[in-house]
Amino acid sequence: MAQVTLEDYEVHFRYLFEYLGGDIAKEDITADLFRAYIDWMIHDKGLSPVTANVRIRTMRAFIRFAFVEGYIQSPLHEKIKLLKTEEDTLESFTTAEVKALLDKVDTSTFAGFRDFVMICTLLDTMARISELVALKRSNVNIN
Known about the structure:
Blueprint: H1 3-20, H2 31-44, H3 49-68, H4 95-103, H5 110-125, H6 129-134
């Protein structure tokens, strides 16, 4: 797991522990508890629904893990829903815009060719730039 992901999880769990006020017994882990936690994030902490949903996804993944591993007996993760949010309206590049971008890169130099390959990789894989930059040779199976 990436270091950034682990740090994000730590932030998300700190929020949950702040709400809980510390450890709780597994019998107290209920869907109502998490619904109240969601309400607390929105109304008391003032988080946007989008930000709260990031934390909800983390909690659902953790609860799913706890259920699959037998730590809790009920599939609570199925009862906890994301908040309604406005649909993202990010527009993608047109084919002409992609061609114009690639035409600006000077592939006769090492740096230009590298940039060209990076742009193509990002477009082809939809990877994040941080994921591409962190990529190591050992992460790639040439075969």
